[in-house]
Write a structure and sequence with these properties.
8-stranded mixed β-sheet; 2,3-Dihydroxybiphenyl 1,2-Dioxygenase, domain 1; about 260 residues; alpha+beta
């Protein structure tokens, strides 16, 4: 787990939803997770998804009118305030300024210059993922962008990432974000007919599964929609799903470790 829970690498994901009890039931049934609500009124209904005794991600209610249902991506920062300054200096926007979350850590939330939302987590008691890149756990994050060059400039300035790109822009070029030579997440350049203009820039969360087709079938049985049917790509076989409340996420059966 070199590329997780370290500075400038993925460290957390959580779900904001309009129906927390229904969402908990859906993800428990789909992935076999258990749930643990934070037992404080000040937590606002936030809780943790667990695989066994390890943290997989979080959940909570949408906190603002019009907030879309969805999974959020967080990267580790050892100084959330300094990261917020880097975001604004490089054309991003601060949505939620750095704030302490009890004794767990310090949180901030942003959008990049293209409008893709992401957060940073400065850990204290809560260190981030307890399990990663195993079936039932988060295994990858992917930025969907229409301006890949601008994204490369922004994320390099904010997090120090390198960008390793293959393919051509017209054919949907793919970029691996790397830190110290290690891949930590990806970026798909949204170009061509497969990406209608109404799809905004966004970060996508991927969960590892043992069988992509079986997981997509089970999600449909549980009331989800299959936005992208199981498809074979170089890393494995993936599908994009939409949970019953409208939150998109991806699942992938990996051919090998990322």
């Amino acid at each position: 787990m070199k590329t997780v829970n370290q500075p400038s690498t993925p460290t957390w994901a959580d779900l904001s939803t309009t129906d927390v009890p229904a969402a908990k039931t859906f993800y428990q049934d789909l992935f076999g997770w258990t749930c643990a609500d934070v037992p404080m009124e000040e937590a606002g209904g936030y809780g943790m998804f667990l695989q066994g005794e390890e943290y997989v991600g979080g959940y909570g209610p949408c906190m603002a009118a019009g907030q879309p249902v969805g999974w959020s991506t967080y990267f580790r920062s050892d100084d959330a305030d300094a990261t917020a300054a880097q975001v604004t200096e490089n054309g991003g926007t601060v949505i939620a300024p750095p704030m302490d979350v009890f004794d767990s850590g310090r949180l901030a939330y942003f959008t990049d210059p293209e409008g893709a939302a992401f957060g940073v987590w400065q850990p204290k008691e809560h260190k981030g993922f307890g399990v990663y890149q195993e079936p039932g756990a988060v295994c990858w994050f992917e930025l969907m962008s229409r301006d890949a060059d601008r994204a490369k400039t922004f994320y390099r300035a904010v997090f120090g990432w390198d960008a390793d790109t293959c393919g051509t822009d017209g054919g949907g070029a793919y970029t691996e974000w790397k830190l110290g030579g290690e891949p930590l997440s990806g970026m798909m350049h949204m170009a061509g007919e497969g990406f209608p203009p109404e799809i905004p820039a966004h970060w996508m969360v991927y969960f590892a599964v043992a069988d992509c087709d079986a997981t997509a079938d089970r999600a449909r049985e549980l009331g989800a929609a299959v936005a992208v049917p199981p498809t074979t790509v170089p890393p494995g076989r993936f599908s994009v799903l939409r949970d019953p409340q409208g939150g998109h996420f991806s699942v992938i059966a990996l051919d090998g470790p990322r």
